[in-house]
Amino acid sequence: MSAAKIISFTIAILALLFVALSFDSDQEYMSDTSRIPSMKGLCFVAGDSIAAHNMEQVLAVGANWISQTPFGWMNDHDSPEVVLNNKRAWWGETDHGIAHTTEHAQEAGVKTMLKPHIWLRRSEDKWRSDIAMNSPEEWDAWFESYEQWIVHYARLAEQQDIESLCIGTELYQTTLQHPDKWRKVIQKIREVYKGEVTYAANWYKEFEAIAFWNDLDYIGVQGYFPLSSSENPSKAALVKSWQKHKRKLERIAKKYDKKIVFTEIGYKNTADSAREPWTWPQDLDHSVNVSNATQQVCYEAMFEALWHEPWFDGLFIWKWFHTTHAYKSYEEFFEARSERRKERAKRRGWDLGPQVYFTPQRTEAMEVLKEWYR
C-alpha cells in the first residue's frame, strides 16, 4: 500500500473514531423522557398561619418540595450590616413560623428548602445584585454580618431537619468580587448544617461566573430567562428560544458535574410575560394586557424544553399562596385578597389597573403544572 493510501486510510479511521466518541458523549446527555426531576417545588408565600389542608393543597398539584423565605434587612445597597429581625417579621417568616410550617410539610411527606433573602430598605433603583461595599474594611464587616445571619438559618435548618439550605440569592457583586469569602461562609455553614447546600444565582451572567459551585451540592439558578420580545408568542417560538439558554446551563452542569435546579421560575398572566419574566406586576399599570393564554404557553414551553434533560433536577414555581387556616379553598382566599386590594385602593385614592397574577393558581397554567408535576 502506498504512503498516500496509508495516510488516507488513517485519516478515515480517525474521522470515524471522532464521530463515534462524539456520539457517545452526546448520548450521555440526551434527554430521557422516562426521567423525572427530583424537585417539584413551590415557592411558599408566608402567611399568618399554617394548617394541614395547606399541605394537602401542595400534594394536590403533585409538588414534593416547598421553599420558605425569611428576610435579612439592609438599609442601603452599600450598608455593611445585615439585620436579623424576627420580632417584626410576618409570622410565616419568623423562626417559629418556619419551624411550624416545616413540621406540617414533614407530616405530609413534603421536603423543604430554606431560602433566606436580603431586602433593601431604601433601594434607590438598586437591588440585591448591586450590593457592594466601598472599602475592604466594609467588605470584611459585611461578610462577617452576613455570615452571622445565614449561620443562624443554617442552625435553624439543622434543628428542624430541613432538607436543603440556599445560602444566598442574586448577590452578584459579592460573588463576583469575593468568591473566597463565600467559600469561608460555606465552610461555617457546613460546620452546623448537614443537609444539602446551594446558592441561587441570577440567570443573567451570575450563574456562569460563580467560582464556588464545587463547594455546593447542586447549582441553583433563578430561571427568569427572557424568551421573546413579542407579545403572545407561540409555544414553538418559546421552546426554540430556550435552546440557547439550555446550552449555557448544560455547559455549567458539565463543567462542575452537578445538577441544576431552578430555585425560582414563574410567569405572569400578561401578554408580554416572556419578555421580562422577572418584572413584578404593578397594581397601577393600566397599559398591561392580561393574557392567561400566554402564561399557559410559557409554562408549557418551560416544561417541554427542560423537564427531561439529564442535567436538570427540578424547579420551584414563583409563587405559591397557601390559604392559611382561614380558607379551605383558593376561591375564598383569593376573593378575600381581591376585596382587600379594592379597599386599600379606595382608601388611598388609587385607580387600579387590571388584576395581574405572578402565580398559576387562578389561571389555566395551574393545569399545566399539575400535568407535569404528577
Can you give a write-up of this model?
With 374 residues, this protein is an alpha/beta fold. The chain has a single domain, classed as Alpha-Beta Barrel (TIM Barrel). Helix content is 43%, strand content 16%. The protein contains eleven helices and eleven strands. Helix 2 (52-60) links the parallel strand 1 (39-45) and strand 2 (65-68). Helix 9 (292-306) runs parallel beside helix 11 (365-373). The model is unreliable at 3-7 and 9-29 (pLDDT under 50).
Relevant terms:
single chain; about 375 residues; alpha/beta; TIM Barrel; three-stranded mixed β-sheet; 11 helices; about 45% helix; globular; disordered N terminus
Main-sheet strand order equals 1-2-5-7-8-9-10-11
Level-1 CATH class name: Alpha Beta
Helix percent band? 40-55%
Rg calculated over all Cα atoms: 23 Å
**Corresponding CATH architecture:** Alpha-Beta Barrel
Would you tell me the structural class of the helices and strands? alpha/beta
Distinct helical segment count:
11
Number of strands: 11
Low-confidence stretches: 3-7, 9-29
